[in-house]
Amino acid sequence: MKIMKKTMIVISGVGLMISAAFVLKYSNGKTDSTGSPGENTCGSCHNGGSGTTITNVSFNPSISSGSYTPNQTYTITVNVINNAFNNFSFACEILNSSTLSNAGTMSNAGSGVQFMTGINGRNVATHTAVKTGTGSASFTFEWTAPSSGNITLYAIGNAVNGNGSPTGDKPSSTFTLSLSPDLNSVTLPSSSISSMLLYPNPVKEVVNIHLTTNKNIKQATIHLLNTNGKTLITQNLNNIQSGLNFISVQIPSSVPNGLYFVRLSIDNETITRVILIQK
After folding, report:
1. Which of helix, strand or coil describes residue 232?
2. Number of compact structural domains in the chain
3. Contact 139, 78 (CB under 8 A)
4. What is the pLDDT of residue 123?
5. 210 within 8 A of 196, measured Cβ to Cβ
6. Under a CB-based contact definition with an 8 Å cutoff, are residues 137 and 160 in contact?
7. Which structural domain range is residue 271 located in?
8. Which of 95, 116, 214, 246 is most buried, most CB within 10 Å of its CB?
9. Do 188 and 195 contact (CB within 8 A), yes or no?
């Protein structure tokens, strides 16, 4: 019986050592734990703490109407809040909504933030060490949006007591944010065009175009295309003057409601905007 008792003590000690090593390892950053598809969350290990932990995310420049500006660089701040704790950690992934691959580029990690790659190849912004704060902590990094594609951000935070064990901690649920590209805010690559604005949007019968050019243009073409790429309208423009030009495009009654592309072709360059026809 004495031998059995000693064996049990040794096994229990080893278990505690493994648990502590596990916690210490991930106190310096964790991948594959945001709750994105196919991943666990912090709650799969950490539990038992008091209060409610909330994770939210803000963007600078701000995000509105569920859209991001393609190729724009944003400063992302992940806030983790629980008034019952003073130590916090986090993880954040930004994925293409369809392929679940990395969307855009993370860079310029802020204080207490690092970038890691999980076993599934997903890049994650996560803590370098537990960050101290009275009831909350914030983590920042920069993200350059992709040129196209719907994206989903997954972020999760954990309020920890620092006892070297996953017990007594309080993870948040996963914060998710889905965004689509705002094609109407794409920076124009053209040396001939300063801006191209469309209104009203949604469109009923006529779409008006404010086209500002940097030089005189002999000829340009406007196309209306459906989402399958089929051209429904072609309108030729001649002798466009440098400066602000007003152009109107009549929408035929035969064109059904839905999303369409207005495409301007000029000097071997193409500029595309999205409109909603809603009669």
Report:
1. strand
2. 2
3. yes
4. 94
5. yes
6. no
7. 188-277
8. 95
9. yes
Degrees to nearest 5, angle at CA 185 with 179 and 187: 120
Measured CA to CA in angstroms, residue 38 lies from 106, 115, 157 at distances of 21, 20, 18
Residue 76 falls inside a structural domain: yes
Given this model, what pLDDT does residue 182 score? Answer: 82
> How does strand 131-132 pair with strand 87-96?
antiparallel
Q: Give the model's pLDDT for residue 2.
A: 43
CB 123 within 8 A of CB 106: yes
Q: pLDDT per residue over 177-194, tens digit each?
A: 999 888 665 545 556 777
Together in a domain, 263 and 134: no
Could you tell me if 95 and 102 are in contact, meaning their C-beta atoms sit under 8 angstroms apart? yes
Exposure of 140 in the CB half-sphere (CA atoms within 13 A): 8
> Distance between CA atoms of 268 and 250, rounded to whole angstroms?
25
Burial group, residue 125, by CB count within 10 angstroms (0-12, 13-18, 19+): buried
Write down the residue that tokens 């064990």 correspond to. 165
Indicate whether 90 and 142 sit together in one domain.
yes
Residues of the chain with pLDDT below 70 are: 1-29, 40, 42-48, 165, 183-191
Which helix (H) or strand (E) covers residue 191, if one does? none
